[in-house]
Amino acid sequence: MSIAVLSVASECAPVVKTGGLADVVGALPAALGAVDVDMRVLLPGYPPVMAALAEAGGGEVVLQEDDLFGGPVRVLDGRVAGILMLVVDAPHLYDRPGSIYLGPDGRDWPDNPERFAALSWIAARIGHEGIPGWKPEVLHCHDWQAGLVPDYLAQRGGGAGTVLTIHNMAFHGPAPADRIDRLRLARARYTAHGFEFWGHLSALKAGLTLVDRLTTVSPTYAGELLTPDFGMGLDGVMRDRRAALSGILNGIDEEAWNPATDPMIAPYDRPAGKAANKAALRREFGLPESKGPLCVVVSRLTGQKGLDLLLEALPALLARGGQLAVLGSGEPALEDALRAAAQHRHVVAHIGYDEGLSHRLIAGGDAILVPSRFEPCGLTQLYGLRYGTIPLVALTGGLADTVINASPAAMAMGVASGVQFHPVSAGALALAIDRLCDLWEDRKAWARMQRNAMAQPVGWQGSARAYAALYRETARTA
Ligand code: ADP
């Protein structure tokens, strides 16, 4: 029998996306549909979501609140981009221009605690009483934005089982402690064992301490979260909850990211097909011929992603005749540093967010670089594998789990699919770039790695089964 699950998230591709979270939330319903999970997605009604819903014929009102944190709320039931969605229509919280998290000044919206508490409040209500004709047996909460779900559900006396997936432990969703009452939370939970975190309220910690089961997006990151280096101050909480924690690897959307059918590139199903895409990329950016590999990066530009290390190690790549093309946006200092580096004729930096260009870079590049200081799973190295674009990655999180390093042993056995480096420093990265260039010059070795990469499973099949099994263990209706 199928199991009913409500996925609760602040982003969902293709409707609204700032990072990998959206890709995962958008991919899960179809992936899990294949293993008998009936999933709907609860999403805030930001302008693009409301517009997509209206375009799809609007939605049916299935739930209402007269006043939730300062205004009325309706929940609309509809289908958007093939996904069954429940949209929280709350103009006072979500109807504003620009980024979904940041105001025009580049800072978090001051009422972010209320905006995502509202999402969690509605999720808990649906988990308790359901909507006409449908009641979830599991609430699958994603990141801090859904962290308060178990608290609100407990206040109602329970309902569905709860799962919380940590996509990135760096974001806690803090709120000043004086908002506890306004956010309708129980003061008794404002302790070190509850949602108190260094004098603040932490929405993520609320979820971590109360949810039935915890997952994160790779087995290695699950282990890392238990350590001070990666736990972001919550490693003690994670150690307490170790028995409830598991790591389930993200997959990619194999339709959107299929080199054989990708409409945004010159399609190919063998590594040789990359040549036309590389030539097109050179033309697009006026990149001259070079003897080394053309390396690409598609990334948010933040400290997490280690692009400052890449800039430091860049001379090692240029010295070998390599080239670099970066697509990214984020911290102004990194954007400026990349623009400055792009003065070099073998370096290109495109600052911005561009889906089409991300496909062209990954199809046309020889290697994709992911030098992250931490990486819960990472998607671009998976796109790289599928497109025969050799990943050079830091040995951390999901990057450790998805790339087979070209060690002497792996090369001897012919199983390598990329290059890993450790520790995550500019020096180690420069050495890894050198190794990458050695491999590039050994045409047979490179071709073998490309074949291995393209044959590696990077879809959702295995992980969908793992989630379905977890849901069955967690399912509850009262
Ligand atoms: P994170 O979620 O930490 O940003 P992931 O690797 O898990 O990192 O996911 C990032 C997603 O966002 C990928 O789908 C990637 O292709 C996409 N992406 C990141 N930056 C850009 C950009 N500037 N333009 C287009 N796509 C981007």
The low-confidence parts are none
Shape: globular
Average pLDDT reading: 97
Structural class per helix/strand content?
Answer: alpha/beta
Q: Short description, anyone?
A:
The protein is an alpha/beta fold and 478 residues long. Helix content is 37%, strand content 20%.
Fold and architecture overview:
The chain has two domains: 3-251 and 461-474, Rossmann fold; 271-455, Rossmann fold (3-Layer(aba) Sandwich), CATH 3.40.50. Helix 5 links the parallel strand 6 and strand 7 (161-166). A nine-stranded mixed β-sheet has the order 3-4-5-2-1-6-7-11-12, sandwiched between helices. Strands 15-14-13-16-17-18 form a six-stranded parallel β-sheet, sandwiched between helices. By secondary structure, it is an alpha/beta fold. Helix 4 packs across helix 5 (149-155). The protein contains 18 helices and 18 strands. Adenosine-5'-diphosphate (ADP) binds next to helix 1, strand 13, strand 14 and helix 12.
Secondary-structure blueprint of this entry?
Blueprint: E1 3-8, H1 20-33, E2 37-44, H2 47-55, E3 60-65, E4 73-80, E5 83-89, H3 91-94, H4 112-129, E6 138-142, H5 149-155, E7 161-166, E8 174-176, E9 196-197, E10 200-202, H6 203-210, E11 213-216, H7 219-224, H8 235-240, E12 245-247, H9 274-285, E13 294-301, H10 307-319, E14 323-330, H11 332-341, E15 347-351, H12 355-364, E16 367-370, H13 380-386, E17 390-394, H14 397-402, H15 408-413, E18 419-421, H16 426-441, H17 443-455, H18 461-474
Parallel strand pairs: 1-2, 1-6, 2-5, 6-7, 7-11, 11-12, 13-14, 13-16, 14-15, 16-17, 17-18
Antiparallel strand pairs: 3-4, 4-5, 8-10, 9-10
Helix pairs in contact: 4-5, 9-12, 10-16
The site of adenosine-5'-diphosphate has 18 residues, from α1, β13, β14 and α12.
